[in-house]
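Quick note —
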Amino acid sequence: MADESGPTIDEAVLDGVLDSVGGDAAFVADLVGTYLSDAPTQLAAIDAAVESRDAAAIVRPAHTLKTGSLTIGAMRLGEMCRSLEQLGRAERLDGAAEAARAIRGEFETVRWELRSWVAGRKGS
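Predicted structure written out below.
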């Protein structure tokens, strides 16, 4: 189960990414934009795998969304995706539909917070 405590976005991770690219806020905004553009594709693939009861098909989109989420500081979402990925690797579907719904809901919060973070950096 994902840790429900803590912030939706760990801004220290985003600040670390920003530092690693020499403070290039436009680059980080592009990175966030790419993540936000790709995530719906991964969510749709997770939904399709759950709908078709194909545990193996959950693995790749859950892994991809996990990796992107952790990279941009969406730690809770990343851990939720890790749990779903592990279900898929174990060829289990118990709880997968609920996990997919929770991931989608968490992503909506992540999307809002990332857009706010980027907007705050543009004004800097």
